[in-house]
UniProtKB/TrEMBL annotation:
Residues 441-458 have a biased composition (Low complexity). Residues 441-467 are annotated as: Disordered. Belongs to the NADH dehydrogenase family. This is NAD(P)/FAD-dependent oxidoreductase. It comes from Streptomyces phaeochromogenes. Residues 8-315 form the FAD/NAD(P)-binding domain.
Amino acid sequence: MSTTERPRILVVGGGYVGLYAARRILKKMRYGEATVTVVDPRSYMTYQPFLPEAAAGSISPRHVVVPLRRVLPKAEVLTGRVTTIDQDRKVATIAPLVGEAYELPFDYLVIAMGAVSRTFPIPGLAEQGIGMKGIEEAIGLRNHVLEQLDKADSTTDEDVRRKALTFVFVGGGFAGAETIGEVEDMARDAAKYYTNVSREDMRFILVDAADKILPEVGPKLGQYGKEHLEGRGVEVYLSTSMDSCVDGHVVLKNGLEVDSNTIVWTAGVKPNPVLSRFGLPLGPRGHVDTQTTLQVQGTDYVWAAGDNAQVPDLVGRKAGNENAWCPPNAQHALRQARVLGDNVISGMRGFPQKEYSHANKGAVAGLGLHKGVAMIVMGKMKIKLKGRLAWYMHRGYHGLAMPTWNRKIRVFADWTLAMFLKREVVSLGAMETPREEFYEAAKPAPAPAAAKAEPSPAKTEEKAKAS
Ligand SMILES: Cc1cc2nc3c(=O)[nH]c(=O)nc-3n(C[C@H](O)[C@H](O)[C@H](O)COP(=O)(O)OP(=O)(O)OC[C@H]3O[C@@H](n4cnc5c(N)ncnc54)[C@H](O)[C@@H]3O)c2cc1C
């Protein structure tokens, strides 16, 4: 980390907001005006809307992430976690990947730490659940699902087989509905190559505590999404929740019990709990409380945006809803980041702040190859699309929203190749323990006990002579 005479703008989190805000600040800044430092435990930004497609193998996982050091060459990028912030001393504590934690002074602060999975104390969930917030989880899920097909194909034990072929997804929002849609599609495709596994042998279950799925696209398209998934053999249980899943034995509130090796948890997000150690005003659900300018309430040097902030929704408020807040999605995160970047520059130079206002443009969701739903808002009109056309909208929108031309081109290239080549259905589960096989090979020679048990050939010869 550089020591600098220039003021430091510390950006906590290099996700959607962090990356775009830092780029904006660097673009607008005069040469040498400030040092921009971005801290994130990962060295890359993840485009989360593509995680379900990465889990299904439609996009290469590496193409869904953007290396921070490459896209922010003029920033100082630190790989580590901000653990506390002392607002009086204007100092943040950084826990790097290795070594001692250290303090980093700053003059201006941007809080962009996003959200974490919202979980409940359900017995077995911590041990059995898989989240869908990062690329590691998407790769893990893909390998895991394909491994279950391998297992089921090669066992004679009916219980093992049934457990392997039962897949439970909890949460039917964007993340859950898209992930089950994509993974079911992949498993259906993969089953063609297995002798003893067919799609009919598999059980896909989607559970949600609400009475609908995909609330982001409205009730009608949500209902369509549900019926579409059911038409593909997915069991959808609404207004129910998971009571426990100890050792993979899933018990739902509606009385259903199944055994499953795969429990995917996508039941919503909550602001990063670390925020409580930042000495900033928080809203009732733990978000950083911001003004319409994205400046944190009661401060003139801290800004926040994205999933970790509660930002007043000016459009909703103008329409009469006094308690309207911007929903946590990529659409807002991207636009807030731009306004935030401009406001940091204005704040540094003592100029007035701009207000953030954005009218919802709609939502798109992919449910597997050639399947999707889309709601496009144009003024007062809402255009609802489903099926192949909606899926093209989904791909077109997200393909273009993917940060950097490098990644856009790679993603479109993946899709184009997939039109001509068959989907990759190999499980690389051993990737999680890459050293295991080498360790076995390089292990020291067998212990003396083993040597005793098997007499050496020389001794056997001696004995034979004596008798
Ligand atoms: C599976 C999935 C599908 C989605 N699909 C859609 C969609 O179709 N459309 C849509 O609009 N939105 C979608 N979203 C939501 C969208 O991705 C988020 O709203 C958006 O990423 C929020 O941006 P952010 O910058 O606030 O948070 P993030 O992009 O999550 O970035 C937060 C960053 O902070 C870092 N961080 C965490 N803790 C610390 C720490 N202690 N110190 C430093 N850094 C830290 C993280 O590593 C991360 O890089 C989806 C989300 C998921 C999970």
